[in-house]
Amino acid sequence: MAYKSLLTVATSAYGLPPAVSAAAQIAIRSDAHLDALALGVDRTQIGYSYVGSGAVMIAAAMERAEEEARASEKALNAAIAAQPPGLRVAVESAVTQLGALTDVVAARARYADLVVLPLPYGQNRGVEDEAVIEAALFEGMAPVLVVPDKGMASADPRRVVVAWNQTRESLVAARRAMPFLRRAENVTILVIDPPTHGPERSDPGGLLCQLLVRHGVRAEVTVLARTLPRVSDVMVRHLRESNADLLVMGAYGHSRFREAILGGATRDMLERAEIPVFLAH
Hints:
The chain is α/β, with parallel strands linked by helices. It has 2 domains: 5-147, HUPs (Rossmann fold, 3-Layer(aba) Sandwich); 159-280, HUPs (Rossmann fold, 3-Layer(aba) Sandwich). It is 41% helix and 22% strand. It contains 10 helices and 10 strands. It has helices at 16-30, 54-81, 101-109, 127-139, 168-176, 178-183, 206-214, 231-241, 256-262, 265-272; strands spanning 5-10, 33-42, 88-97, 114-118, 144-147, 159-163, 186-192, 219-224, 246-250, 277-280. Strands 3-2-1-4-5-10-9-6-7-8 form a 10-stranded mixed β-sheet, with helices on both faces. α2 (54-81) links the parallel β2 (33-42) and β3. α1 (16-30) crosses α2 (54-81) and α3 (101-109) crosses α4. It is globular.
């Protein structure tokens, strides 16, 4: 399988050029089509407004959202214009309320092989940016490539790390990332603090490695102890030491509520991402 239909979504101009550049590289490399959606988001909570002010607030909020959509579309077109010739791309804009954002994004993500987005956390990022990623992953059922401000060095990452913890999410991520894995020079299946009980206790990551090798992937397994407070700490250190170009991991192994309140590997890695992160659920 190759990525033939890509999607990127812009809620603002922040972090957009690296994401568009990565999407364009992948699209050109795979002879794919890129759809780009510029969103204006109405974030008002009408239920908490004063009596009689609802209509005024709605009108003002929608006008502001329309302005945001136009600004995002302008930024998208500027970023696309900077890409190499030959890119097949279509740009559209839409305005939505925050509560309906999931439906708008999911309706497009369902028909994309890969969704490419900027980091959802950091300066000038809002709650709608996290909502876009979750909409694509959960309701859109699409894999998501999250691109940091540093961008993506190549459409063919040479050194890829697959985070493996024997969960459904991590297996889905490995399968969805197969186009990247098959072209990589080296793929490391990273197992951190493997369980002492279970089907993989004697050979952590072995079955996944066998599956990938049969698909022509140059894969190997690395097992590390949890020597730092969080799994994400160990993962970040390994990514730096191995000079990795891409991290593949399952998204939200716990409930999204628990991830948001208590934190989790998904949120930690997105907050600290220095390289592109490929997510699937």
